[in-house]
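User:
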Amino acid sequence: MLIKRMAARKHVLFVCASNQWRSPTAEALYRDHPQLEVRSAGIRPNARRRIGAGDIKWSNMIFVMEREHKKWIQDHFRDAELPPIEILDIPDDLGFMDPELQSLLRLAIDPELEVLLSSDPPEE
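Assistant: Predicted structure:
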């Protein structure tokens, strides 16, 4: 039963500019969610973990913090089959795990996850 549940988990990627504050906070908030596997990445060359083609292929859903991040992904992975990309509009002025950042992220992400998790499980 556990193996079946693990196979049905959705893959969610959180993306910000440098993968220092916003996307790692989102990853930490949802890391223990039983229906999700999560990763975070950044789009800048100096990001702690930079987004790659493998991340795109792995993802069922991508959450970006700003409109520019979505455009960057669309421009740089033009030939890839992109999963849905949701723009969260989260400002880049709060530090890692800041309580206000956590609140903003949950308010933006929770309703979207509800929709994602009510859809069909990912194909293996």
